[in-house]
Design a protein that fits this description.
By secondary structure, the protein is of the alpha/beta class. The protein folds into 2 domains: 186 residues, FAD/NAD(P)-binding domain (3-Layer(bba) Sandwich); 125 residues, D-Amino Acid Oxidase, Chain A, domain 2 (2-Layer Sandwich), CATH 3.30.9. Helix content is 33%, strand content 28%. It has 11 helices and 18 strands. Strand 13 and strand 14 form a beta hairpin. The protein is globular, with a radius of gyration of 20 Å. The chain starts with 17 loop residues before the first strand and ends with a helix. One of its GO terms (molecular function) is monooxygenase activity. It comes from Streptomyces yunnanensis. Keywords: Monooxygenase, Oxidoreductase.
Amino acid sequence: MTTNANTKTKATKAEKGKVLISGASVAGPALAYFLRRDGYEVTVVERAPDLRDTGYAVDFRGAAFDVLQEMGVLDEVRGQDTKMRGTALLDATGAEIGQLPAEVFAGELEVPKRELTRILHRLTAADVEYVFDDSINALAQDDNGVEVGFERAVSRRFDLVIGADGNYSKVRRLAFGPHSDVIRHLGMSGAGFTAPNHLGLDRSGVLQQGKGTAIYAFSAADPKSLMVSLSFATDSPALDRRSRDEQEQAVREAFAGNAWETPRLLEAMTAADDFYFSSASQIHLDRWSHGRIALIGDAGYCAAPTSGMGTSQALIGARTLARQLAEASGDHVTAFAAYEAELRPYVAENQAKGREGAAMFGG
């Protein structure tokens, strides 16, 4: 089964139906694993040309470990532990004024996101069709399936479509409405990038907070590299959709006049080839499914990075949806309703944590 030059693998025959998942980060491949195990033919479409190699380290908490264990990759994921030792709190001059324990940022286990993505892809690559460098541009469903249009490939028909494509989910926009209707901004945005480790950090981090700004930098698996986050107060997530030049300019303006290492970090930002920009936002929907289309992870119920629960929520959401489909013998109406009823209290708790974390930043 080949749809374009960037199709990575082939799925075997469908036993329970054909499912299309949009997004190949964490939630998408995790759901693909469980659905394929249960007999579905699964295709994952990803707009990036290949596996994403950017992003900070991700952490795991609570029941997420049970999901990794069930997938048979817990030991492998543990082998990528960053072994962070903690974060020093700095004043405006760079002098240390306190310490935060490792679990504040690293949870119970922290690994580089690119390593988790690679593990999940390797786990599913033999039995799941991955289509990179393409994206959904049309959805038309009826009682028997969903006709899906793509930006590059010819249209195809699936029994179910699942959006696992993040805050600005294409699936959600097409099936549920505009992003502006469901994105709730938490008052902060920021840039992330890799820089040379001129601070000499070793499996440790530094955090410097000002009024409406925060610099967080840490070095984990690669002692030569520094992961940097420059966050600042914003009124909306509008910068997420602007050009890199506009985003960089907004960062420079927010940190203008900051002393310590800020000028050097701003220079490193401009030179970085892995620059990305995002806002702390949550997704709030009255429902997570519409007919044969459903959402998981950040696409359906992002709790914001300030919650520390994004990766765990993605894994737990994927397993919950797959389990409900199995228990309902493929009856998507019953399964989608049960999935939402089971998971909503957990999501509500995590979103409350996300709002609390953003409020702490604001001082």
